[in-house]
């Protein structure tokens, strides 16, 4: 997140428009891989912000490896979200309006492994069951994309 960190030095916690990707990884049982976030201590999707020169798909691939140690053969674009509902205030005070491309990854190789300081744990969840401590932003995205009922 070098680009966003550099911007934060200039604008502080003011709202930024942040483009990025979210990656949905399903196992053979159809369960979704989520990470327990270090900043909010809740369960969220794998993903992050676009770096200069990257495509949204390249961001998805980079984030999947950086956060979970996984690679994918293919990324299917599910939808793109933007607007007021994509506002998020991080626990440390930074504010963003996300423009988020949602990808479903296929042909996964590797074993889920926490690779950076953004996650504490990785776990697959059955989307037919309530997910305890789900990040509200993740819940919104999964609901609007039709993966869970709100």
Automatic annotation (TrEMBL):
Residues covered by the Nudix hydrolase domain: 16-147
One annotated GO molecular function: hydrolase activity
Pfam family, one: NUDIX
Keyword vocabulary terms for this entry: Hydrolase
PANTHER family named in the record: 8-OXO-DGTP DIPHOSPHATASE-RELATED (PTHR43046:SF2), GDP-MANNOSE MANNOSYL HYDROLASE (PTHR43046)
Family: Belongs to the Nudix hydrolase family.
Name by which UniProt lists this protein: NUDIX hydrolase
Classification of source organism: Bacteria, Bacillati, Bacillota, Bacilli, Bacillales
């Amino acid at each position: 997140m070098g680009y966003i960190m550099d911007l934060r030095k200039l604008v502080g916690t003011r709202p930024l428009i942040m483009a990025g990707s979210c990656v949905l990884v399903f196992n053979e049982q159809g369960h979704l891989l989520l990470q327990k976030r270090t900043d909010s201590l809740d369960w969220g999707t794998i993903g992050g912000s676009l770096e200069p020169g990257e495509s949204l798909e390249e961001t998805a691939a980079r984030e999947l490896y950086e956060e979970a140690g996984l690679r994918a053969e293919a990324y299917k674009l599910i939808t793109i979200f933007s607007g007021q509902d994509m506002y998020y205030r991080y626990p440390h005070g930074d504010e963003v309006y996300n423009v988020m491309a949602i990808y479903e990854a296929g042909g996964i190789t590797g074993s889920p492994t926490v690779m950076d300081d953004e996650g504490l744990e990785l776990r697959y969840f059955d989307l037919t069951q309530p997910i305890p401590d789900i990040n509200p932003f993740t819940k919104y995205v999964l609901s609007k994309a039709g993966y869970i009922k709100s």
